[in-house]
Design goal:
With about 230 residues, this protein is an alpha+beta fold. Helix content is about 20%, strand content about 25%. Strands 1, 2, 3, 4, 5, 6, 7 and 8 form an eight-stranded antiparallel beta sheet that branches. The structure holds a DNA duplex (13 and 13 nucleotides).
Length: about 230
DNA sequence: AGTTGGATGGTCT
DNA sequence: GACCATCCAACTG
């Protein structure tokens, strides 16, 4: 995946995904049929489906099936390759604006006007400064190690939902990388995360897949620190 | 190292 | 009005 934003190019290798296929998949956003939000899932493959979760995080999906059959793959983790500083700034901005709002009671748009200011955050609260320092110290593999973190690191916007990820003119797109190489033996599969509500068989079907050797794969809460 | 609760607002019943 | 395809900080031990 690669994104061309104002502050430069960011590129990463997708190392973890989850598949959501069809309206009968009770874990899928398409389980209620077509709605304004999930409409891109019913559109042409290769498009983005971006949605907001828990009121704050953005998740990036890739539409995968022909028109009329709703399906998408959630990008759960990305191994940064280029634009790592920009990813750090984007991560700090997303956390910094939230903390500035909550802690200082300031308007987020005024509190941290630019990504650079967000990263430096000289006027931010102690809590915001701590968050920025933490992100500055993260290993590159930890910058997009989770679906919400991918959205933050690549500054994915819900307004980009439905855009073509395969067009060279798109700021956000998929591209064939240098290290495509991955035999099926290098890829592990297991149940999808955070969808227990769907019930069986959907809660257990092994449609989460990840590159076994990658250190950028997400970890369950409680074992999130770098080894 | 593992668990818990808070943030936060669109989306769908 | 309830529910999240989540992350983080603060807490326990």
């Amino acid at each position: 995946v690669r994104v061309d934003r104002a502050d430069g190019l960011r590129i990463g290798r997708i190392v973890e995904v989850e598949a959501y296929v069809g309206e009968d998949d009770l874990a899928s956003h398409a389980r209620f049929g077509r709605t304004p939000r999930n409409a891109p899932m019913y559109g042409p493959p290769g498009a983005a489906y971006v949605y907001r979760v828990y009121g704050m995080h953005r998740c990036l999906n890739v539409v995968t099936e022909p028109v009329g059959r709703p399906a998408a793959v959630l990008v759960r983790a990305v191994e940064p390759i280029a634009g790592i500083d920009a990813m750090r700034r984007a991560r700090a901005e997303s956390v910094g604006t939230r903390r500035a709002t909550r802690v200082d009671g300031r308007d987020p748009d005024e509190a941290l006007a630019t990504p650079a200011e967000a990263f430096a955050a000289p006027a931010a609260s102690g809590a915001a400064l701590a968050a920025h320092a933490r992100i500055a110290g993260l290993a590159p593999e930890a910058l997009a190690r989770g679906p919400g973190l991918v959205g933050a690191a690549f500054s994915v916007a819900v307004e980009e939902s439905g855009t073509d990820l395969c067009a060279a003119s798109s700021p956000l797109r998929l591209a064939i990388g240098d290290t495509v190489a991955c035999s099926s033996a290098d890829v592990m599969a297991g149940p999808r995360v955070g969808i227990a509500y769907a019930g069986e068989p959907w809660a257990s079907v092994p449609w989460r897949m990840w590159v076994a050797a990658s250190r950028a794969v997400s970890r369950p809460a409680g074992s999130r620190g770098l080894p």
